[in-house]
């Protein structure tokens, strides 16, 4: 199964146009996802924090389609939904002991719902960017496997709407 999924991912990456974003930005390997224009003005879906060594502050933003789906409890998410996870290094606040503030940005991660284009990965295309540039193919090959193993019942999306 793992070998056939990799083959499908490689085959699908050939001549795939970019999705959801900057016409001038380089798309992610495999999926062709680019950083969406004006995404920093989108609504926040939720903050996020993982236990582990990342030591990051994170926020997940959504376009209008994804925000509407979250509010209405729509699963699967409709085509056109886009989620963006922003991550920064967590650094101590210089003004207030015990508090933390965002340090330097680490990644921008994107999920784009297009059930036809990305049928081989549950309808989602993935993009991961550092300093505005997509990370290597190997890192993108792991995206769907993690989502499939952990949140298949929630349309492959980890994030829940913050109350």
From TrEMBL:
Q: Where is the Cytochrome P460 domain?
A: 36-159
UniProt signal peptide: 1-23
Q: Which keywords accompany this UniProt record?
A: Signal
Q: What single Pfam family name could you report for this chain, choosing any that match? A: Cytochrome_P460
| Name assigned to this protein | Cytochrome C oxidase subunit III
From which organism does this entry originate? Bradyrhizobium guangzhouense
Please name the taxonomic classification of the source. Bacteria, Pseudomonadati, Pseudomonadota, Alphaproteobacteria, Hyphomicrobiales
């Amino acid at each position: 199964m793992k070998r056939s999924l990799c083959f499908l991912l490689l085959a699908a990456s050939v001549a795939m146009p970019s999705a959801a974003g900057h016409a001038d930005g380089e798309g992610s390997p495999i999926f062709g996802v680019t950083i969406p224009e004006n995404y920093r003005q989108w609504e926040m879906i939720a903050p996020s924090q993982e236990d582990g060594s990342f030591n990051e502050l994170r926020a997940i933003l959504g376009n209008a389609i994804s925000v509407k789906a979250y509010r209405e409890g729509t699963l699967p998410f409709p085509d056109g939904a886009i989620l963006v996870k922003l991550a920064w290094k967590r650094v101590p606040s210089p003004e207030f002991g015990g508090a933390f503030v965002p340090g330097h940005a680490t990644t921008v991660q994107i999920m784009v719902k297009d059930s036809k284009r990305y049928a081989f990965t549950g309808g989602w295309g993935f993009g991961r960017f550092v300093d505005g540039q997509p990370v290597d193919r190997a890192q993108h090959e792991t995206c769907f496997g993690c989502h499939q193993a952990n949140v298949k019942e929630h349309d492959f999306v980890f994030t829940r709407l913050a109350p």
